[in-house]
């Protein structure tokens, strides 16, 4: 998922943000007791089609307007949603879902097995960013209108969790197909429904799409035909506000009920006001990465050099400097709280030992590292400030870091092209499960970071073990899987290619009248639980 929060020109943006709020028009409450919920956030929307959407706001939208077979509670336990029950075979290759016969779409038509099959197959064939979740599906059988049998190409004990992800929202297939949506193999080229989805929805969720104005406003209204308990809030309005200061000012003035991207520094300005500021641990993290295969390397980034770089960074000081201490150190690229993510040893800050390692590697006289990174503020972490802190730390052990902040598109081109000796990036989960982290960061041949780290020119970084551990974990019972994920985490940490820096706390800021605001691994912000 992409989580962006630019930090520049905050005060200049404030007047524009407040003007945009007024230009958005008055929101008429349904009654004296009911009023709209206004959310200020950077709406990084790329699409409102569940099969194409790929952003934080999209995650909220997909799980509020559409519904999945299952969902997650506050403890990340799977709960029924459209599916009232399910069975999984011992091999973890076949899941049989029984649909709730009461489930219905917003137009009143029943949610049936054919809609589930169509939605899953469409996600796979559209080939968008979320298609990876559907790719392991080998076939889907629908013996009757309330039964869906999903067959997987390999054991996958995480698929039930994955079924809670917004990408697997169930679409009213009849309505969508009538407006150009396709689910077969031609969908990637011939599906013409994306524009239709920008002004229409076809889900069974507690809300329906009312209107969307790109880069300005997204409005949802209560689904009056909702088949479960209807939400209290009649309308939800997302207002486009990039700047954290502007979001905070909107909260204080009453122009917004919730601000979703308040950073730790800005949160301090809300102290003493009636705004509620909750800091909760998140599953997001920011990391640096080293590319031994980068063309710009001036020295060989051996395991010893990579270890020296890791322990030359004062993580505690960095967390204080970047997020005011509102975050947790993280040792391996698996979120704290995910299977296999806890209890790894945080590398101790030890510049003297770092110097010894560099000397032993023959680079004790120092060298230069080129660093290209996205010019962003993500999860409250200003990447330029963080990299300046890392630059200072590494200078103490003789490593000169040349900083080059660039737009994200330019960063991606560099990372995937000649690669980048030292960079900084971010990651957030797409579902509650550890396989996604091993897929991205496990350095298996052909994986994302095996390529970005230059594995084709330095094959020593390629891991043959993490992929095996992934397969074993996906076929194992939960307790055994936890141990296998932990082992994979240890291998990823020891490689010192991906070096996590901080898991920033999530700051949930809202008016005192708003209740039920919480962070969710599947849904980001469960709107139906909120009251005002």
Automatic annotation (TrEMBL):
Residues 77-444 form the Solute-binding protein family domain. Keywords: Signal. Residues 1-32 form the signal peptide. It is found in: Periplasm. GO terms for cellular component: ATP-binding cassette (ABC) transporter complex; outer membrane-bounded periplasmic space. GO terms for molecular function: peptide transmembrane transporter activity. Belongs to the bacterial solute-binding protein 5 family. This is Peptide/nickel transport system substrate-binding protein. It comes from Shinella granuli.
